[in-house]
Structures are given as structure tokens and as C-alpha cells.
């Protein structure tokens, strides 16, 4: 009873409860969205394939670490359940962000303002908070790691005595985030650099001072690094046991080098990436030089923001959900500028410059469409819109995809395979089918090796139907043994000759 009485009088508890309910309301429409988002379609098919005994990367392929696919597999690729999980991950992230903001700022109202902004931006579709991408899940683990690290600088004796244990736990959290998407490496790097700078002596002029710095910082860096590599080591061990280690390594890491390099070419290969690295290095050097004039919390936020922005611009691609990784740190950074803008005029100018770049670089879900997102939901649930009209709001091809899936689902026997030539993997999920090979979309079958492999899989399994979507490139496979059956909204359907 005393605990309940304390909770009733706790302003923070009521704020977080109300904000959690508000976040839940913002995300409710996402739970009944149609299957329309391309990346989710891939994840859904992989989740279903894993539940059907296929081995990740060797038998069903995508280019991310395994934890997102494992999560989709837990929910059998069901979009409603995965997005519901994302919703609760989001609420937990909002709560942790609030406590992190309270640690960072002594200003009484600022954590409330920043957390409300975080909930609105993360809960709405404006930067794809409604989509169950890697970023939506890894955010919680990154925030928890940052919160744990920040608590070390509250000058509490009992916390300081457990520093290495706390850092080890932070490393594990970041290692889990890394298994959702490799860009969590930059959050890990931000914390390592922070630990190095914060332990640097006021003067660094002699070998003795340098040795003392290394001696002081090395145990902390080792603790967080050990924690970081353990989840990866455990996962690598699993793939070693089942014989898929090299497939795991190539798909998750090696092949991403080419993915990053494609848009970063400038004069030389990776030219843009080199420029961004130089800029990041310059910021780190500047913060090291200014470390004595910054509080630990300010130094942490400035470093985290620099690495988060580098993260968002890392691949030089305009995908909206990349902005999610920078959202917490940028909000905290803006919080500092709001309270100390007179002392940091250069940082204010730099912030507006980078926010302008963010606005120009990424394809946001427009403000107009974000506002209309909720009336679209209300119109549908109140029967003022047809199913087709509701689906077309998200993508004009979505009604076609559902019609195709219905056609396939009604004509296929159990455990049948279909091959879809196009970039709409969600048709597999909607029709309860799987591709004959390991690739789910056409843009993954770009190399000669991938074409040969897929042709061999088609010849071996002879899928009941081959579906060629109207917006796809020419089919690079033979249709021997198949006859043209019909067309659905421009989609050509070929049926196996029995």
C-alpha cells in the first residue's frame, strides 16, 4: 500500500504512464496496416522460412545480422505480432530515454519536453517509427547501454566500485544491438572514445602521464569490449556448429562493404566515407581538446551525437529509418543547446547545418501524409473507406499484391513453392508460400552467380507458378515447362505444365 501511495504522488510515474498511453495510441494504426513495406516483406518471408526449417543465409538470404530474422521467426512472420512487439519495445525506449535525460540534465522541465518530442517522433510514421525495422528494436538496447554508462559519472561510491561490471553489461547490450544491425558498432565506438577521453589527465605532456592514462582507461575499455564481443561470439558459434558460419559472415558483414561503397564513391572509391571519417575525427579531436571545459554528461552527448550522425550518413543512402539511430542523441544535444546556446554559438550553427542536411538527404514520410495517416485509419475502421482505398494509401500496388496472394492461396496445395520475379516479397507471406531458392526479391539476384543459383533452384523444385510483376526487369530465367495462364493488373502468371 505504501508503494502504491508513493507511485500516486510520483510526477514522473504519471508522466511516463500518460506518455506510454499516448505512444500506444500513436502506434495503434500500425498494427492493422496492410503488408506493403518491402523490407518487412523480406523479413516476414525469412521468419516463415526459418520456422519451416530453412537455414538462415544458406537457404534463405538477406544482408543483415540474424537477430531481426530470429525475432520475425518467433512470431512466424506475422506482421501484427512483430509490430506489437515493436510497440512495446518503443514504450520501453521512451521510458529509458526519459531516465537518461534526467541523468544528463539538471533542468527540471527539459527531460519532460525532450521525452515528449522523442515519443512523438518515434511513435509516428514521420521517420518510420511504425515500421518493424532493425532500428526500432536496437534502439532500446543502445539507450540502456548509454544509461548504464552515464550512471557511472554521478559520483556515487557504490556505482564507481562496480564500474567494470556496469561497462561489461553495457557492452553486452550493444553487442545485442549489433546483432540487429551492424551500425550499432558506432554507438559502441562512441562509448569507447568517451571512456578514453573522460579518463585522460588534465595535462598530457610526459610519458608517465600517458602511461597513467592507458593504465586507467584500459580496464574500462576491455570490460565494455569483452561484453560487446560475447553476443557475436555466441552467435558465430551457433553458425559454426550448423555449418553456416561463412554464409553468416559474408551476408552480414563482408557483402555490406560493397553496399556501403556504392553511394560513397567520390573521386575515389569510398571518397565520401573518407571525408566523413575525417570530419568525425576532427570533432573527436576538438572535444578532446575542450574536455576540461565540458561536464562528463555534455562530453558524452556531444560524442554520441557526432557518431550517431556519422551512422545516419554512413551508407549515403536516403532511407528514412536511418534517422532513427540519431534521434535520441540529437534530441539530447538540442537540449544542451537550448540551455547553453550563448556559450556554444558555433555548435548551434553546426546543428542547424546538419539538421538541414538530414532534411535534404532522407526521404521522409511527408508531414501531409503523416497527418493523413491517422484519418486514413479512422476512415477505414469506421467503414468510410473500402479495403482497397485503405490499402492504396500506403502504396498503389498493395491492392494488386493482395489480389495476387488471394489467387495463389486459393489454387496452391500445402507446402507448394512459387517464384515471384519482382521486389515485393510480402506476396510470399500473404500467400503462405516460399521461394524455391534462397532469394526473396529480384534486386538480390543481380549477379551471374545468383542468377545461376536461382535458375538451378527453379529447375529442381519446379514451383507451381512463376509470377512476373509489371515493374520488374526482364526475367533472366527460362520458362521451359511453363505456360502463360493469365494476367492480374499487369502481372504475368505462368503455370507449371503437369
Write the layout of secondary structure elements.
Layout: H1 2-8, H2 11-31, H3 38-51, H4 67-74, H5 79-104, H6 110-123, H7 134-151, H8 157-161, H9 163-180, H10 184-198, H11 207-241, H12 245-263, H13 271-289, H14 296-312, H15 327-340, H16 345-361, H17 367-381, H18 387-394, H19 398-411, E1 418-421, H20 426-431, H21 448-461, E2 465-468, E3 482-488, E4 491-496
Parallel strand pairs: 1-2
Antiparallel strand pairs: 2-4, 3-4
Describe this structure in words.
The chain is mostly helical and 498 residues long. The chain has 21 helices and 4 strands. It folds into 2 domains: 351 residues, no CATH class; 101 residues. Strands 1-2-4-3 form a 4-stranded mixed beta sheet. A hairpin with a 2-residue loop joins strand 3 and strand 4. Helix 5 runs parallel beside helix 7 and helix 10 runs antiparallel to helix 11. The longest helix has 35 residues.
Please give a handful of descriptors for the protein shown:
498 residues, mainly alpha, 4-stranded mixed β-sheet, 4 strands, 4% strand, globular
Total helical segments: 21
Could you report the average pLDDT, rounded to the nearest whole number?
A: 89
Strand order of the largest sheet: 1-2-4-3
Derived from helix and strand composition plus strand pairing, the structural class reads mainly alpha
Order of helices and strands: HHHHHHHHHHHHHHHHHHHEHHEEE
Number of strands: 4
Q: Low-confidence stretches at least 5 residues in length (pLDDT < 50)?
A: none
Global outline = globular
Distance between the termini: 72 Å
Sheet-strand content, in percent, reads under 5%
The main sheet comes to:
4 strands, mixed
Number of domains: 2
Bin the helical content.
Answer: 55-70%
Question: Over the alpha carbons, how many angstroms does the gyration radius reach?
Answer: 25 Å
Amino acid at each position: 500500500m505504501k508503494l502504491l501511495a508513493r507511485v500516486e504522488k510520483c510526477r514522473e510515474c504519471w508522466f511516463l504512464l500518460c506518455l506510454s498511453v499516448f505512444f500506444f495510441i500513436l502506434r495503434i494504426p500500425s498494427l492493422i496496416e496492410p503488408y506493403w513495406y518491402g523490407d518487412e516483406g523480406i523479413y516476414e518471408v525469412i521468419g516463415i522460412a526459418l520456422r519451416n526449417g530453412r537455414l538462415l543465409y544458406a537457404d534463405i538470404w538477406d544482408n543483415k545480422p540474424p537477430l531481426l530474422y530470429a525475432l520475425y521467426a518467433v512470431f512466424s512472420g506475422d506482421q501484427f505480432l512483430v509490430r506489437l512487439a515493436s510497440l512495446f519495445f518503443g514504450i520501453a525506449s521512451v521510458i529509458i530515454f526519459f531516465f537518461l535525460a534526467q541523468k544528463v540534465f539538471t533542468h527540471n522541465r527539459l527531460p519532460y519536453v525532450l521525452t515528449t518530442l522523442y515519443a512523438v517522433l518515434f511513435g509516428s510514421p514521420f521517420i518510420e517509427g511504425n515500421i518493424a525495422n532493425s532500428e526500432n528494436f536496437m534502439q532500446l538496447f543502445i539507450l540502456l547501454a548509454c544509461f548504464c554508462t552515464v550512471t557511472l559519472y554521478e559520483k556515487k561510491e557504490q556505482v564507481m566500485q562496480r564500474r567494470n561490471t556496469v561497462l561489461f553489461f553495457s557492452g553486452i547490450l550493444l553487442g545485442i544491438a549489433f546483432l540487429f544491425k551492424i551500425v550499432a558498432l558506432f554507438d559502441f565506438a562512441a562509448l569507447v572514445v568517451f571512456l578514453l577521453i573522460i579518463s585522460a589527465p588534465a595535462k598530457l605532456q610526459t610519458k608517465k602521464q600517458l602511461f597513467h592514462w592507458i593504465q586507467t582507461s584500459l580496464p574500462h575499455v576491455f570490460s565494455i569490449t569483452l561484453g560487446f564481443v560475447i553476443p557475436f561470439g555466441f552467435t558465430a558459434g551457433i553458425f559454426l556448429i550448423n555449418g553456416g558460419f561463412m554464409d553468416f559472415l559474408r551476408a552480414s558483414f563482408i557483402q555490406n562493404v560493397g553496399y556501403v561503397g556504392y553511394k560513397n564513391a567520390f573521386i575515389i572509391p569510398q571518397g565520401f566515407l573518407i571525408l566523413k571519417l575525417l570530419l568525425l575525427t576532427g570533432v573527436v579531436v576538438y572535444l578532446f581538446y575542450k574536455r576540461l571545459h565540458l561536464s562528463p554528461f555534455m562530453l558524452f552527448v556531444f560524442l554520441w551525437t557526432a557518431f550517431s550522425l556519422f551512422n545516419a550518413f554512413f551508407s549515403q543512402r536516403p532511407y528514412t529509418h536511418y534517422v532513427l539511430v540519431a534521434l535520441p542523441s540529437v534530441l539530447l544535444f538540442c537540449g544542451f543547446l537550448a540551455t547553453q546556446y550563448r556559450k556554444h554559438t558555433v555548435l548551434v550553427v553546426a546543428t542547424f547545418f546538419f539538421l538541414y542536411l538530414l532534411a535534404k538527404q532522407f526521404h521522409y514520410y511527408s508531414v501531409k501524409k503523416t497527418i493523413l495517416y491517422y484519418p486514413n485509419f479512422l476512415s477505414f475502421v469506421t467503414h468510410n473507406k473500402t479495403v482497397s482505398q485503405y490499402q492504396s494509401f500506403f502504396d498503389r500496388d498493395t491492392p494488386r499484391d493482395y489480389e495476387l496472394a488471394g489467387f495463389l492461396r486459393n489454387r496452391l496445395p500445402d507446402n507448394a513453392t512459387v517464384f515471384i520475379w519482382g521486389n515485393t516479397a510480402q506476396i510470399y507471406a500473404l500467400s503462405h508460400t516460399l521461394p524455391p531458392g534462397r532469394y526473396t526479391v529480384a534486386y538480390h539476384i543481380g549477379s551471374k552467380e545468383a542468377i545461376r543459383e536461382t535458375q538451378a533452384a527453379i529447375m529442381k523444385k519446379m514451383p507451381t507458378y512463376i509470377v512476373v510483376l509489371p515493374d520488374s526487369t526482364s526475367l533472366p530465367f527460362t520458362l521451359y515447362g511453363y505456360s502463360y495462364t493469365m494476367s492480374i493488373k499487369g502481372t504475368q502468371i505462368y503455370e507449371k505444365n503437369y
